[in-house]
Amino acid sequence: VFQGRILTRRLVGQETRYEVEVKTPYRHRFPLVPREYVWVPNTCGCPPLRDGAEYLLMARRHVNYEHTLNRILLQHDGYARPWTPREERLVREAARHC
């Protein structure tokens, strides 16, 4: 789970790649760098992420069977909400209990 600002969006084959500036990592099981690519396995714009907007994202690390691909994947049922101070408060409160 992290707060990020969408920098760009690009369609790559049958997927969408977002370049994201990682603002605040809240809970993560793999290291995050200040700029990451977040992949969405469709080109329909779901979830709808706008360039320049900030979001609270819950994505997962995806490593393929051959271990040649390691990326951050935001699935269609993943969590992507516009960032607000309320969202930050809720995440910080949840982190104390998890």
Q: What overall geometry do the principal axes of the alpha carbons give?
A: globular
Largest sheet: spatial strand order: 5-6-3-2-1-4-7
Low-confidence stretches: none
Based on secondary structure, the structural category is mainly beta
Distance between the termini: 13 Å
Identify the CATH architecture: Beta Barrel
Mean pLDDT: 85
The total count of helices amounts to 1
Helix content: 10-25%
Mind describing the biggest β-sheet?
A: 7 strands, mixed
Q: Which CATH class is shown?
A: Mainly Beta
β-sheet strand percentage: over 45%
CATH fold type: OB fold (Dihydrolipoamide Acetyltransferase, E2P)
Instruction: From the alpha carbons, calculate the radius of gyration and give it in angstroms.
Output: 13 Å
Question: Can you put this structure into words, describing what you see?
Answer:
It is a single chain. The protein is built from one helix and seven strands; from the N terminus they run βββββββα. The protein has a single domain (2-96), classed as Beta Barrel (OB fold (Dihydrolipoamide Acetyltransferase, E2P)), CATH 2.40.50.120. The protein is mainly β. The protein is 13% helix and 46% strand. Strand 5 and strand 6 (70-73) form a beta hairpin. The protein is globular, with a radius of gyration of 13 Å. It has one helix spanning 85-97; strands at 2-12, 15-25, 35-40, 54-58, 60-63, 70-73, 79-82. Strands 5-6-3-2-1-4-7 form a seven-stranded mixed β-sheet, with no helix packed on it.
Topology record:
Blueprint: E1 2-12, E2 15-25, E3 35-40, E4 54-58, E5 60-63, E6 70-73, E7 79-82, H1 85-97
Parallel strand pairs: 3-6
Antiparallel strand pairs: 1-2, 1-4, 2-3, 4-7, 5-6
